[in-house]
Each structure stands twice: as structure tokens, then as C-alpha cells.
Amino acid sequence: MINKQVNKGKCPFRGLEECSNECAFFRRGVRFNEKKQESYAFEDCVFNLIADNLEAMHQRTFAMQREVGETKNVMAFKILSDLGMVNPEEAGRRAAAIINIPDDKKLIK
Questions:
Q1: Which helix (H) or strand (E) holds 74?
Q2: How far apart are CA 10 and CA 45, in angstroms?
Q3: Is the pTM of this model over 0.70?
Q4: Residue 91 to residues 2, 55, 95, 105: CA-CA distances in angstroms?
Q5: Is 107 helix (H, G, I), strand (E, B) or coil?
Q6: pLDDT of 18-43, one tens digit each?
Q7: Which one of 1, 25, 29, 95 has the fewest beta carbons within 10 angstroms of its own beta carbon?
Q8: What's the rounded Cα separation, in Å, for the pair 2 and 14?
């Protein structure tokens, strides 16, 4: 595996030579850092840019899924407390009665 820190800016396709504008994969432009709310110039290989974008999209998706899960749990606990179902066994009985689960399939009796 290529060490990302040691070989930063070097091209694995050209024998780890420095990346330059002679290469078809070389890109130059401006990127925006969302955390610091600032833009900066970059010169890098397109594969590094693609990998960085995929990692950023993965982190955003993971964070969004975690937030949705937390929100769902808060909403569920709020509904249960509003209905007075703070006891898990009682909540299970009421939920089973509402969704009409047959008696032989109920987990809590």
C-alpha cells in the first residue's frame, strides 16, 4: 500500500514522480473547506480528488444516518411518554394490541 503522507503529490502511475501538468490526470483549481468556511487552491491528481470526495460523501451520509436514528429514537420515546407507556412490558402489550399480533407470536404475555 502506498503511504499517503510520504508520497503526497507523487503519481503511482508514473513511478512516484511528482505530479505535474504534463499528466492527463493532473488538476488545478479551488476547493472549499466546509468546516473552516474558507477556500484554497489545489494542484493534485484527479484520483486523489475523487478519493477525497468519496470519503467526504461517506462521512456526510454516516453523520446524516446517525442524526436520523437519534431523531427517530427521541420521537419514539416522546410518543411513549405522552401515552404513559414508560414501562417496557406495558408498552409491548399495548403495541401488540394495536398492531393485532396473534397471541402465539407475542414476545411479552
A1: helix 46-82
A2: 8
A3: no
A4: 54, 41, 6, 16
A5: coil
A6: 777 888 888 888 888 878 889 988 88
A7: 1
A8: 13
